[in-house]
Design brief:
Layout (H helix, E strand, L loop, with lengths): L2 H14 L2 E3 L4 E4 L22 E4 L2 E4 L6 E2 L2 E6 L2 E4 L1
Antiparallel strand pairs: 1-4, 2-3, 3-6, 4-5, 6-7
């Protein structure tokens, strides 16, 4: 699955739950942060190719006053998703 694929799935779910996206949804975690890959439209890196990646949607209820952001880092071992 590419970062774009995950972005599209997350965007749809956020909207269906009655929230709006305020910021990016996550990114890869690289040793050299100058090469940061975001979970964004048209992003071609794959989740399996990323050593580590975050999901950190910054969202709020539609027409809400306050937003919420929580970051979780994930990686794969033997095709199994692990939360750090």
């Amino acid at each position: 699955m590419t970062f774009n694929d995950l972005y599209q799935i997350m965007r749809k779910e956020i909207e269906q739950l009655g929230f709006e996206q305020l910021d990016y949804l996550g990114h890869g975690v690289q040793r050299d942060m100058r090469h940061l890959d975001f979970i964004a439209p048209d992003a071609t890196p794959t989740l399996g190719g990323a050593e580590l990646f975050t999901l950190e949607p910054h969202i709020r209820l539609l027409c809400g006053q306050f937003g919420f952001k929580h970051e979780t880092i994930y990686y794969f071992i033997n095709n199994k998703l692990i939360e750090l």
